[in-house]
Amino acid sequence: MRVLLVEDEDRLAQLLKRGLTEEGLLADVAATGEDAQWMAKATPYDVVVLDIGLPGMDGFETCRRMRGDGVGAPVLMLTARDAVEDRIHGLDTGADDYLVKPFDFGELLARLRALARRRGDDRGPVLQVDGLTLDPATRRVQRDGADIPLSTKEFQMLEVFMRHPGEVLTRLDLLEGAWDAGYENRSNVVDVYVRYLREKVDRPFGLHTLETVRGAGYRLVPRNR
Ligand code: CA
Fold first, then answer.
1. Would residue 185 be called left, alpha or beta, if left means φ above 0 and alpha means ψ between -120 and 50 degrees?
2. Which end of the chain is more exposed for a tag (fewer CB within 10 A), N or C?
3. Nearest CA to 48 among 3, 84, 99, 9?
4. From the CA of 56, how far away is ligand 1's center (Å)?
């Protein structure tokens, strides 16, 4: 699950990012509404956490513009005041939920999961490539009905492959899909995780579905080729 955090108070943003990362989520931080607008347009986030009080363009305007750009990710607004007008205004601009500052981190996490789940429901949750299935809502992966336990990173990378079956994905595609934007571009980490994934989703089943495409990257292929 990938989260865009829009918060201009750097300390709070970093604290939240660290907390989310520890929970196995990916989090990118934007300090202004302008940055948030282009980031949300460029990356399919599962949920956006949007502070109302931002320098320049405020959270309301940012939300309105993101919706104008066709960004469909659920938006959780953070408001410093528990003002009824703020809530109504926020929901009018296309926000899905709001949270009053200061809030409990567990509460934030629960709201994020609920929003992402709701979204997962309307995008058709379970991905399937032959006998391999991946459920983003429950984080369950199975091959022919047998559970395959994966680490968070392995799961995120497999999800990228399963959203693009048969396509050649470069190391950069996989890095962008499974690591957050602050991650250094070290492509060998991708190779390492592809090896881990093969050990779990292919080898025990005598399959070779995660192909290396020489000089290009990797590809998830149907098993009966
Ligand atoms: Ca603020």
1. beta
2. C
3. 3
4. 11
pTM as predicted = 0.64
Distance of CA 42 from the midpoint of ligand 1 (Å): 23
What is the rounded CA–CA span in Å between residue 73 and residue 185? 26
Segment (H or E) for 53: none
Give per-residue pLDDT as tens, 173-204.
888 777 776 666 666 889 999 999 999 999 99
Length of the chain: 225
DSSP letter string over 180-209? -TTS---THHHHHHHHHHIIIIIGGGT---
pLDDT, tens digit, 9 for 90 and up, residues 136-157: 767 789 999 899 998 878 988 9
Among 76, 141, 82, 140, which residue's Cα sits nearest to residue 110?
76
Write down the pLDDT at residue 156: 86
Instruction: Give me the architecture of the 2-123 domain, per CATH.
Output: 3-Layer(aba) Sandwich (3.40)
Residue 43 alpha carbon to ligand 1 centre in Å: 23
CA of 13 to the centre of ligand 1 (A): 10
- For the chain, give every domain's residue range: 2-123, 127-220
For residue 89, the CA-to-ligand 1 centroid distance in Å is 17
User: How many C-beta atoms lie closer than 10 Å to residue 62's C-beta?
Assistant: 28
Q: Which two tokens stand for residue 86?
A: 């703020």
Tell me how far the alpha carbon of residue 37 lies from the centroid of ligand 1, in angstroms.
Answer: 16
